[in-house]
Fold this sequence. Notes:
The complex is a heterodimer of chains A (116) and B (112).
Chain A: E1 5-7, E2 10-13, E3 19-24, E4 31-38, E5 42-50, E6 53-57, E7 64-68, E8 74-78, E9 87-94, E10 106-107, E11 111-115
Parallel strand pairs in A: 2-11
Antiparallel strand pairs in A: 1-3, 3-8, 4-5, 4-9, 5-6, 7-8, 9-10, 9-11
Chain B: E1 4-7, E2 10-14, E3 19-25, E4 32-37, E5 44-49, E6 55-58, E7 61-65, E8 71-76, E9 85-92, E10 100-102, E11 106-111
Amino acid sequence: KAGVTQTPRYLIKTRGQQVTLSCSPISGHRSVSWYQQTPGQGLQFLFEYFSETQRNKGNFPGRFSGRQFSNSRSEMNVSTLELGDSALYLCASSLVGTGRAKETQYFGPGTRLLVL
Amino acid sequence: GQQVMQIPQYQHVQEGEDFTTYCNSSTTLSNIQWYKQRPGGHPVFLIQLVKSGEVKKQKRLTFQFGEAKKNSSLHITATQTTDVGTYFCAAIDGGATNKLIFGTGTLLAVQP
């Protein structure tokens, strides 16, 4: 079974631009979560999608948004990029995302975004 | 909100020495997960602990969940260079959610 895939793997943008990142979960997984990883703030939860609905949201400004399609693929968008948005953006998929003991989240390789 | 503290931030050991990282929460955790992230890689799930006082082993790795379910530890016996990476603990943020609150991580360096 193929793992979680993310595209693109690397991206360079300038301040003020917007960016869209894509995540394809493991086949059969319906929950997709997004995380931002920076040296200063560590791994922080952005949001989670399940059945095309945002089920949970972290403490990020409205410039960060996402969506999920009927095939469970998910995209996240960051508008009006700032220098501080430079980070590794990780998505993770799981079966149904109930947070119960048997659930495991599988992380993708991430998209490394550099904002100049 | 829930916070998970992890110590130490960094540990440098000689190959063959043991290593331990600790994870602490101010609130009771429903479960705790451990991940390993190799340099340049992404977090990879290692294990999940659910029961109070639970101890699980994976070869040279021993994971423990505290009796009060507020702390956890990961111990590696006789480290090898392949153990290099950052080890994160993560807790579910309460309720029926998949939101993980990650600890700050412990970067392990192993000198051959």
